[in-house]
Amino acid sequence: MSGISIAKSLELHLVRPLITRDEVLAGCAQAAAAHLAAVCVWPTHVAAAAAALAGSDTRIRAAIGFPFGQDAPSTKLVACQRALADGAHEVAVMLDHSTLGSTSGQAEPTAALEELDRLLEHAAWSSLTAARGRAELTIVLEAMLLAPEVMAPLLTHLHDSPAGFVQTGSGHQPRAVTEHDIRVLRDLAPADIAIVAVGGVATLTDAAALIVAGAIRVGSGSATLILEQERRSRGARPTAS
After folding, report:
1. pLDDT tens for each residue of 123-137
2. How far from the centroid of its chain's Cα atoms is residue 88's Cα?
3. How far apart are CA 39 and CA 128, in angstroms?
4. How far apart are the C-alpha atoms of 178 and 213, rounded to whole Å?
5. Residue 73, SS3?
6. Could you give the CA distance from residue 214 to residue 209 in angstroms, rounded to a whole number?
7. 36, 49, 51, 129: least CB-packed within 10 angstroms?
């Protein structure tokens, strides 16, 4: 990371259960001032975030189906459409993990593949992909809870799809994402799918290690603090919040 700021590899995740609109607006202001890659917000806060970030270079990512993914696929698709209409640049969609089993790897992911097909085949993506590229759709898997053999068919399914990213989780799990988790996903995922590392990332050292391991972005509720750590390490002035 020497000589290059980590800012455009960081997302500020504003998806605490009790986060308020005012806290989201304050976070958006900090993210814009720091030129972070994105903020991630609940769907109900997308319109406010879009207004706050108008004219900035920070993108808005809406968290759809978080934290467990147990909405009907049709409900998630409607939520995606609404979030994009409200001003989101990207949507991160949590798959229904009740269809996937756990670390045992015993579950057959047929139902999950069917849900993934419904998401990927949605008519809206074709026009968005043509206009904006593939960064609009992120598929979210709780990678720290799932065996590689469970994730493998889902990740393979993303090749040459409307999805641009796979995300390592909701950030609501007790274990932090590790470099090993990123390397496993990088080995399993098609080369054309980028990885967003989310979950328990609180320091510059952690974030930089995840990027070196293969993540293109790191999402954290501490993203602005991580950037301040970088600036202090370089002797730069802190960003006004």
Report:
1. 666 566 555 555 589
2. 13
3. 20
4. 9
5. helix
6. 9
7. 51
